[in-house]
Structure formats: structure tokens, C-alpha cells
Design brief:
This protein is an alpha/beta fold and about 400 residues long. The protein folds into two domains: about 50 residues, no CATH class; about 270 residues, Alpha-Beta Barrel (TIM Barrel). About 35% of the residues lie in helices and about 10% in strands. It is built from 13 helices and eleven strands. Strands 3, 4, 5, 6, 7, 8, 9, 10 and 11 form a nine-stranded parallel β-sheet that branches. A two-stranded antiparallel ribbon has the order 1-2. Helix 6 runs parallel beside helix 12, helix 9 crosses helix 10 and helix 11 crosses helix 12. The termini are far apart. One of its GO terms (biological process) is carbohydrate metabolic process. InterPro entries: Divergent_DAC (IPR006837), Glyco_hydro/deAcase_b/a-brl (IPR011330). This is Divergent polysaccharide deacetylase family protein. Pfam families: Polysacc_deac_2. Keywords: Membrane, Transmembrane, Transmembrane helix.
Amino acid sequence: MRRSTNGRGDSRGMEPVGDGIDQPLGQSRRRGKAVSLPWSRILLVFCSLAIFATSGAVALRERPFREPPETMASAEDSSARAESQSARPAGGTLLTDEDRVHPSLIRLGPDAELSSRNVIVIRDPSSVGQHPRLAHLPDRALIEESETGPLPARGPDGRRPFDAYARPWSGARGARIAVVIGGLGISQTGTQEAIAKLPSEITLAFAPLGNSLMRWMQEARREGHELILQVPMEPFGYPGTNPGRYTLLTQASSERNLENLRWMLSRMTNYVGVMNYMGGRFTADRQAMTLLMDVLHERGLAYFDDGTSARSLAQEIALAKGVPFVAGDAVIDGERERAAILAKLDELERIARARGFAVGGGSALEVTVDTVAAWAGEVTKRGIELVPVSAVTFDPERTGQ
């Protein structure tokens, strides 16, 4: 190999052969010079470390970073919302442009209507009933255990069985009809057929002297029915006409009537209220009915008067005591023939169109159940909504009257 020399015999322009022979191809042969990283890579590494540290802090933090909405609102906004709410009527109004800048919560009454999609409604939890899948299970917060069995009771939060066990409905303002079919629990076959054939909008009333009431209650609730309990009361002509054991009597002591009433109320759960079974004389007695309404108010139950006695004081005393109340407009199966029952149902339709709602009552007879089931499939096509009895009940606690 030819080597260049400079006249002094030393080689120039070439490094020693062994110098850098172990270096990988493509890398600088000069020693001691640090390899520099681009700034973009350094920034990427730094950001990755920052994201990792932030994620760890969020995962290990005991409370979320976001504070609850109520703590974020300023005192000024809260004052403005309070003034805005105080100026609104009880039923609620539409939001104005100012409201959209400073949103406010509107408490709606049960009869309030919404005519705008821009309104956000936050409902009172006490007005919400059971989830359909849990409707057959009693709410333990609304039960008082007693020697005779579970008694309905108001919950610690003020909820009532009337609120919790009411069947939901559309809330529309059209013509509505509520039909109550009673006498369930007496005949096992009749009870089973009524639950199976009648649409879920029909309210079912159980007799306290019936059999297997808790089992039938659960089956009826699974099918979506709202329930009430029939309470036998003294009729005119008693004891010749006798509703049966545990009947509430005008001449019985208050203690005796309370004992009988407690026994009947504990026969089943998940019902919204009671109704009279017979009771022409009892419902006309002020002292006797006052005792009954005091108990219903205390336990958060409604009262349905079947409307058969013109001398009944039920409405007057119920409203004075704050008990939800509704009266029947017609007994649909006074005559146990299909044509007569249909005539009464037609009468309910006329009342509903004129007044907005109507209430009818009947018994779990085969002809009644079959006729009502067939009629229910047609009446909605005529623009009438079938609703549970609670949907047409006047509730003094909600109206403030």
C-alpha cells in the first residue's frame, strides 16, 4: 500500500488502522463527542412524564376534582334563582332568556303541564313510584311491623304508600277513566283470571278475608296493577246484612274498631289506599269516619268511596283530614249482564268527556272481567286514557288545600 509522507517520514491524512475499527458503521469515529437529542424528543418525554404523573394523582385522589354543582354556585346566582322562583306560580312557567343565562330549578306541581322542550324538569323523589321490576316487593321503609302483620306507614322522608305504590300514567290532560274491580282474593280462580285478563291500567281491590293475599298481591303487581284494600263497614240493616268478620261498626268502641282496622290493613302490602265494602251506615257516621280518616292520614293512604251512598261523609272528612280522596261515579255491574255493563261503561265515557275524568267500580265476576277486558281494548281508540285510580284522586297534601 502506498503511504503519503511529508518529508519527515511521518504519515499524514490517515488515521491509524486500529483507530475506530470497533465503531458501528455510519457513526462518527471521533471520541468524546456527546450524541445530541432533538428538542422534539425531549419535549415528548417531558409531556409523557407529566401525563403519567397527573393520571396517578387522579387515580389516587380520594375525592373527585370537580366540586358538586351546589358548591360551585355563587351566592349571587343563588339569590337570583331564589328571587326568580318566588315570582313563579306553583305550577311552574317557561324559561325566559334571562333564565337561560342563570338557570333555575322549578318545582312542578302534579298537575303542571310542559309546553316547551327547553324546560328541564327535576322531579321530587317522593313522587316517583316503584320500578316496574320491583313493584311486587314491599318498600321496607314504608312498613311498620306489628303483631298482626306488616302495617303501611309513612317513611322517615315523608313518603307515603300512596306515593310509592301508585302506578305511573302519562299525565296527559285528555279524558281519563279509572275502573276498580273488587272482590279479589275470595275466589282463587276468579282472582287469577282477573289478573290475567284485565289490562294493567285497571285497579284491583282485594278483600281482607281472602286467601293467599300476599301471593296474589305480588302477581298483580308484577302485571302492573295498582292495588287498594276493601274494608268491610257497617251497612244499613246490619246484622241482617253482614259484611263479615272484622266489620267496622258505629256502635263498637274506638279501641275495637282500631283493632279490627289494624288487622285488615296488615293482610297485604303495596296498596295505595282503602275503599268501603258496603258501609252505608258507617260512612254516614261522623265520629266513626273521623276515626278512620285519622288512621289513613297517619299511614299515608288514600280513600276511595264507591259512590253507592248519598249520605256518605267520606269526602268532607277526608279532605278536612288531608286524606287523598276520590268517589266512584257508577257501579258498572249492578246488573250482571254484558249489555248492562257496557251501558254503564258508556256512561263513564260521557262523564269523562264532560268533566275530564270518571271512576267506575265493579266486582271480579266472570262477566264483568270479560266485558271490561274487551271494552278496554276499544276505549283507547276513542281518545280516552285508562288510568289507575290514584291518577284521578284529589290529594290535599300535593295541592296545599
